[in-house]
Design a protein that fits this description.
This protein is of the alpha+beta class and 128 residues long. The protein folds into two domains: 58 residues, no CATH class; 53 residues, no CATH class. Helices cover 51% and strands 17% of the residues. It contains three helices and three strands, in the order ααβββα. Strands 1-2-3 form a three-stranded antiparallel β-sheet, covered by helices on one side. Strand 2 and strand 3 form a beta hairpin. It is elongated. It binds zinc ion. The site of zinc ion has 8 residues, from helix 3.
């Protein structure tokens, strides 16, 4: 559902660039279609860089978190084997992307660690 909403917002955002493209192509028509389109895309890019940034910040499913998932792990906390292990690699003010010895945890331990470290907000694991 979140992806569908994001997709719809993205399609609406593309339509917002239509008037800019149309006006610029008409304005710069004397320079030729290619140059007019380049200028239109340049102007559109200057505007929509900020619009896209806002859209993707507001609709990020994981709130900007980057999770790593590994199959067939032994949990770093409880020591039990698990089909999938989880590890938070990046979050605002937390960056373990280049961790030399990454630790993966089962879903329960990973959730427990997350809640202990960052408070009430649960991580949003994908169920597939
Ligand atoms: Zn565990």
């Amino acid at each position: 559902m979140a992806l569908l909403r994001k997709y719809f917002l993205y399609l609406v955002r593309w339509q917002l660039s239509t008037p800019i493209l149309a006006v610029c192509v008409v304005w710069f028509a004397s320079m030729g279609t290619t140059v007019a389109t380049i200028l239109a895309n340049l102007i559109g890019g200057l505007i929509f860089f900020w619009v896209d940034r806002w859209i993707f910040q507001k609709t990020t499913i994981l709130k900007g978190e980057v999770w790593e998932v590994q199959q067939d792990i032994v949990c770093a906390d409880c020591g039990h084997p698990a089909d999938h292990g989880y590890r938070l690699a990046k979050k605002s003010n937390y960056d373990r992307l280049n961790d030399k010895r990454p630790e993966f945890r089962c879903q329960d331990c990973s959730r427990r660690k997350y809640e202990k470290q960052f408070g009430g907000d649960e991580p949003h694991f994908r169920s597939d």
